[in-house]
Write a structure and sequence with these properties.
single chain; 4-stranded mixed beta sheet; elongated
Length: about 300
């Protein structure tokens, strides 16, 4: 190994160690002990994370990293694969999914040892530990995997999603994913994700969240082309959130769904928007109506061809 390679390896080791340590510190500062598994935060049973292809259990710091991923993203199982393994199995990692970095240590021989081994006609003896990292994905972040590898998520209780809402969501043909621990719309990858209905204190409120996120979906450039470029906390972001909140309420009302809560996370930004412009509420309500109408127009379509996962 020349000096430049050694410096690069050293820099990589420091970076990986720092990232791992920062993650552990963040968990501890938030009052969580990452090596005491927070099972209540996930639908997964007690178990150890493992590679779904080889069956080999992960160990050391990788257990903590993967446990955190299971808890934070609401995975129902403990199996993980690499991007390459998913492809070799005939499947793929779903668009927009973020993997979890894990690490492994291998030993390499010094340059002098390699030269000595060549001179003496033997295998070089590795002596220097070298930390590397790679990314793995839960099998639930993949599609097209064979049944013996992919453990399908537990089906959603059909009684928790009202039939009219289920039919409308399917009819939109949106990439609508159920799972995880947060609700969001990804404009970059054009999909919606909402936690499972049973994660809500009152499952009826799942519908309000689902249609709120679908309202964001309606604003994509290929649909109603609303401005969705605002960063968190900006007026543009607040306006889009207000549109989605109103549109979700309009769709629920049209379907006869009566949620018991209102989303209040962005009230401060909404008040600022409305105080600065007395016509903002008119424009926002108009945009919300267009978003709701866009979604409700799918009611007459084929409600069985959507993609809910």
């Amino acid at each position: 190994m020349d000096n430049r390679t050694a410096r690069q390896g050293s820099r990589e080791r420091r970076n990986i160690y720092a990232e791992i340590t920062e993650g552990i510190l963040s968990e501890l500062e938030a009052g969580r002990v990452p090596w005491v598994r927070p099972w209540a935060n996930s639908s997964a049973p007690v178990g150890m994370p493992f590679n779904a292809v080889s069956g080999r259990r992960y160990s050391g710091i990788n257990v903590l990293s993967l446990w955190s991923a299971i808890a934070e993203r609401g995975f129902a199982g403990h199996g993980f694969v690499t991007f390459r393994q998913a492809r070799e199995l005939g499947g793929s990692v779903r668009r927009g999914e973020c993997g979890t970095d894990i690490v492994y240590t291998r030993k390499i021989a010094t340059r002098d040892e390699r030269l000595s081994a060549v001179h003496e006609g033997r295998e070089a003896r590795p002596a220097i530990p070298f930390l590397r990292h790679f990314t793995v994905f839960s099998t639930e972040q993949c599609e097209g995997l064979p049944p013996h590898v992919a453990v399908p998520p537990r089906p959603v209780d059909p009684e928790l999603i009202l039939p009219a809402a289920d039919a409308l969501i399917r009819a939109t043909k949106a990439d609508f994913r159920i799972g995880g621990t947060s609700a969001f719309y990804s404009p970059l990858h054009d999909y919606v994700q909402v936690p499972r209905p049973e994660a809500f204190f009152e499952p009826v409120n799942w519908h309000r969240t689902a249609f709120h996120e679908l309202a964001h979906w309606s604003g994509h450039s290929s649909r109603l082309a609303r401005d969705q470029s605002g960063s968190f906390g900006s007026p543009e972001y607040g306006r889009e959130e207000l549109v989605a909140e109103m549109a979700g309420a309009f769709v629920c009302a049209a379907l006869g769904i009566r949620p018991t809560v209102r989303h209040s996370d962005y009230i401060g930004s909404w008040l600022a928007i409305l105080r600065q412009d007395n016509r903002a509420i008119l424009r926002t309500a108009s945009a919300a109506s267009r978003a709701a109408d866009h979604m409700l127009a799918f009611q007459s379509g084929d409600a069985a061809t959507g993609e809910i996962s």
